[in-house]
Amino acid sequence: MRQVLRPASVLILAWAWAPLASGQAAVDRVGPPSWWVESIDQTLMILVEGSGLDGATVRVLDGPVRVARVEVQPGGQALFVDATIPGGASPAACRLEIMAGDRTIERPWDLVAKPVPKAETVGLDDVIYLIMPDRFADCDPSNNEVGTVGDRLLDRGDVQGYHGGDFAGIRAKLPYLADLGVTAIWLTPIYKPGDSWFTPPGASGKRFSDFHGYSPVDFYDTNPRFGSKAEYKALVDAAHTLGLKVIQDHILGFTGPKHPWVTHPPAPGWYNGPVDRPPACNFRFDAAADPHALEATRRGLTDGWLFGFLPDLDLRSPRVARYAIQQSLWWATLFEADGIRLDTYPMVPRIFWADWSEEIRKARPGLFAVGEAWTIDPVDLPFFQGGRVGWDGVDPGVPSVFDFPLYSAITRVFSGQSPPSDLAKALARDGNYPRPDLLGTFLDNHDTPRLAAVPGVTPARLRMALAFLLTTRGIPQITWGDELAILGHQDDRRDFPGGFPGDPRSAFEEATQTPEEQAIFRTYRDLLRVRKQTPALRRGTLTHLQADATTYVALRELGGQKAVVALNLGPSPASIKLPPSLNGPIERAFGEARWTETPEGPRLDLPPESSSIFRTPIPLAPTR
C-alpha cells in the first residue's frame, strides 16, 4: 500500500455519471469491519457497499478515527472512505455514521488492541498438516445447512457436495494431531462462499458446491457451515495451547463467481477484462519467468480468469490492491496467523506481491508465507521465490513456494516410473533457488491425486516416500488422512474416517484403525518423532552419497551431527559402501538396515523395498 493520505477535513468526490438507480439508502457491507491500534499513525481505506449512497457523507462517532476523504462511486453503490487511525490511540467501540439523503445509517466499527503472536512463525522445524475443513470432522451438525438457498448442499454421497466438517470438528481432533507429531495446520480457505449450487460454463449441467473454500463472496466473514469468526478464533487459540501453529489460506487475486462484485463492482475496472466476455488464464508460468516472452502472454497468466469463470481482480489498480492487502492483514493479525499460504500465487502481478510483502513485514515481522506456483519446471519455479530481484526488477518478497518439481519426481519414482536417481536430479537444481531449504515439500495435496492412489505405489513404496519427504531439505506438508493412506484425488476429496456422525468406526483412534491403517499411521508417527529428535534432518546440509536405479542414500549434517538416510526401492537386498569419514559412533533411528564399520568405510546392508535412518549423537556443547 503505497498511497499517502493527506490530512484534511472531509472531502466528498462525486462522479459526474448518472446513478444507476435511486432509492432509500442502505448499507450492506463495510470492509474492513474493524482494525487495531498501533504506536504510529495508520491510513486505511474503508469500503462501504450498499445502495442509494449518492452524495453520502461519513464520519466516525465515539472514537479517534479521522475521516480524510469520501469518494462516492457511480450509482451510489459504494463509498471509498480514506481514514487515519492516530498513533497511540486506545481501543474503542467506534461507529460509522453514513448520511445519504434524508437517512442516517450507523454501523459498528471497532478499534481493538493488536494481538501479540503466541507462537513462532512457521519454519524449518515444522511439519504442516493440510486440512480441508469440510472433509475432516463434523462436531456441530447444527451448522450443516446454515444459509442454504435452494437444494440442500449437504450430501456425503456427492463428491461435490458439502459433507459437514467444521471448526468444532478440527478443534476436537487437535490432540490427535499433536500426538501424531505434526506442528502446524493449514486450513483451506474459510471465507464465506456462495449459498447454493453452481454450474460452471461448459460443465454440461454438473453442479458444484463451494465446500473447498476457493469461491469467496465475502472476504471479511467465515463460511457459516464451518462456524463463526469467534469459533475460528477459539480453534486458533486451542491450537496454540497445544503448541500447534496455524497457517491461513489467503485468496487475493480472484473472487467466487457469485460474489456481489460481479454484478455490482465497487468501481469501474474492478476486474480484469469484461465480465460478460472474460479472458481465460493461460497458465503460462514460463512466460512470467522468460524476459523475452511477449507481454501479452504474461498478461494472459496474471489477467486471465482462472478456468475462465473465477473473476480475476485487477490488482494493478491501487484501490483493488489496497483492499486485497488490507483483508490479508486483517486475517493474519486479528486471528494470529503463524503462516500464510497464497493461492494461485503466479497469477498475480509480482509488483503486487512486493507491496503485500512490505505491508506484511510491517504488521507481522518475519511471518512465513508460501506461494502455490504449480509448475514442475525447475527452471521456472525459482523465479517465483522471493529473496532476490528477478529480470523484471522485482523481488516479490514471498519467502517460499511449494516444490512442484520435487513432487513430480516423488510421484514418478515411488510409482516405479523413474529410478531413485531422479530424486537426486530434482534436488540438483537447488542452486537455482534463493532458499531451497524453505521450499514446501509434499507427497500430495488437495489438488492432486493421493500418492497412495497412484498406480504402482505399494504400501512399502508409500512408506519409503514418506521417509524421503521427512528427511530431505524443505518444510514438509502432509494431507489429512495421508497417515491412513486414504485414497482420492482432486475431484474426490475423501472424508477422514470416523470424523462424521454415522461413520461405522473412527480412525482417529489407533485401536479402531484397520491393520493397513495402523501400519502406515505408525510409520508416520515414528518418522515424525525421528525428525523432531534429529536437528540434522530439519536444518542440516544435504549431500548425496548414492543415487542409482534402485537406491538413494543421502547425508544430512548440522553442527557435528550426521544423519544418513537410505532407501532401497529394489526387490533385492542392497549393499552400499559409505565414505570412511562416516566411521564412528552411530545409532539406527529407523528401519532395519545393518551398519557395519570397516577400515574402508561403513557398509550399509539394506533389505528390499525399505528405508532406514542412522544418526550420530548430537555433540555436547562445551562446558566452562
Question: How many domains make up the 3D coordinates?
Answer: 3
CATH superfamily of the largest domain: Glycosidases
Radius of gyration: 26 Å
Question: Terminal Cα separation, in Å?
Answer: 51 Å
Strand content: 15-25%
Number of strands: 27
**How helix-rich are the residues, as a percent range?**
10-25%
Notes on the structure:
There is one protein chain. This protein is α/β, with parallel strands linked by helices. 20% of the residues lie in helices and 24% in strands. The protein folds into three domains: 12-112, Immunoglobulins (Immunoglobulin-like); 128-533, Glycosidases (TIM Barrel, Alpha-Beta Barrel); 541-615, Golgi alpha-mannosidase II (Immunoglobulin-like, Sandwich). It has twelve helices and 27 strands. Strand 6 (66-72) and strand 7 form a beta hairpin. The longest helix has 19 residues, at 515-533.
State the gist of this model:
The chain has 624 residues and is an alpha/beta fold.
Write the layout of secondary structure elements.
Blueprint: E1 12-14, E2 26-31, E3 34-36, E4 42-51, E5 57-61, E6 66-72, E7 78-85, E8 92-100, E9 103-112, E10 128-131, H1 167-172, H2 174-180, E11 184-187, E12 191-193, E13 216-222, H3 229-241, E14 245-250, H4 285-289, H5 295-302, H6 318-334, E15 339-342, H7 350-363, E16 368-371, E17 400-401, H8 404-414, H9 421-427, E18 440-442, H10 459-469, E19 475-479, H11 515-533, H12 535-539, E20 541-547, E21 551-558, E22 561-568, E23 574-577, E24 587-590, E25 594-596, E26 603-606, E27 610-615
Parallel strand pairs: 1-6, 3-9, 10-11, 10-19, 11-14, 14-15, 15-16, 16-17, 18-19
Antiparallel strand pairs: 2-4, 4-7, 5-8, 6-7, 8-9, 12-13, 20-21, 21-22, 22-27, 23-26, 24-27, 25-26
Helix pairs in contact: 6-7, 8-9, 10-11
